[in-house]
Design a protein that fits this description.
Elements lengths: L2 H17 L16 H4 L19 E14 L10 E11 L9 H16 L3 H5 L5 E7 L5 E4 L7 E10 L16 E6 L6 E11 L12 E14 L1
Antiparallel strand pairs: 1-2, 1-8, 2-3, 3-4, 4-5, 5-6, 6-7, 7-8
Length: 230
């Protein structure tokens, strides 16, 4: 399937889902949780030059994260560069989209989703029928946290074990490029999840300098998040 066709199918699906009546987490699709459905999918791992570590276990949950990458600036001139202070995103459960197409076709649609989701207002997504799997944020210690407990999928408190630049073809998403692809292993505080991957990122990078920027600012982004676990 071509990327343009995948994008068309993904957009059509999103329009249908966005126009449907909202459903609660309690009424959302059951977690894919180690099913053959999720296991049939492949995590994008390479940017064409370097790769993230291979997954040691099957996929448990596939989500899309839509939110902001957050930054600070010491001064508002070109002598300072933005410093990352974490991210906040809503994680949308994509399990309900997976049965629509074969895994090969579905993978192409998944990979095309982030820029399309980025083009939609966050409020529209939050009020759509696409189930919310949980939230991504950074805890008080600065650890990346993915709380999927509301959808009975567990919690991942991650430590970075892989970091590669987004593919050049994807880095055009947003005026400053796309944030890196990551692999995160579970550490203390995690429940039911052993590793997470951030791939197919769209936007999220800050400008090269703080010239004209506020002391704190956000950059909208979207990404696919794959989670492994029992």
């Amino acid at each position: 399937m071509s990327r343009s066709l995948a994008s068309f199918i993904a957009l059509s699906t999103l329009v249908l889902f966005s126009n449907a009546a909202p459903i609660s987490n309690a009424a959302s699709a059951a977690p894919v949780n180690g099913s053959s459905l999720a296991a049939a999918y492949t995590i994008p791992l390479t940017n064409g030059t370097t790769s993230l570590p291979s997954p040691p276990t099957p996929i448990k949950v596939i989500t899309a994260g839509r939110g902001t990458q957050n930054y600070t600036c010491a001064t508002s001139d070109s002598t300072s560069t933005p410093v990352s202070v974490g991210a906040v995103a809503t994680l949308f459960d994509l399990a309900s989209l997976l049965p629509i197409l074969s895994p090969l076709e579905g993978q192409a649609v998944l990979n095309a989703l982030p820029p399309l989701l980025l083009s939609l207002p966050r409020d529209a997504l939050s009020n759509s029928i696409i189930p919310q799997a949980g939230m991504h944020y950074f805890d008080a210690s600065g650890s990346a946290t993915f709380d999927l407990s509301a959808s009975s999928n567990g919690i991942l408190v991650g430590t970075k074990v892989g970091d590669i630049q987004a593919p050049e073809s994807d880095s055009t998403n947003g005026s400053n490029g796309a944030v890196d692809w990551l692999a995160l292993d579970a550490k203390a505080g995690s429940v039911g999840l052993s590793r997470g991957y951030r791939t197919e990122t769209a936007s999220g990078k800050p400008p090269a300098t703080c010239d004209g920027l506020a002391a704190t600012f956000e950059v909208e982004y979207c990404a696919l998040y794959y989670f492994l676990g029992e």
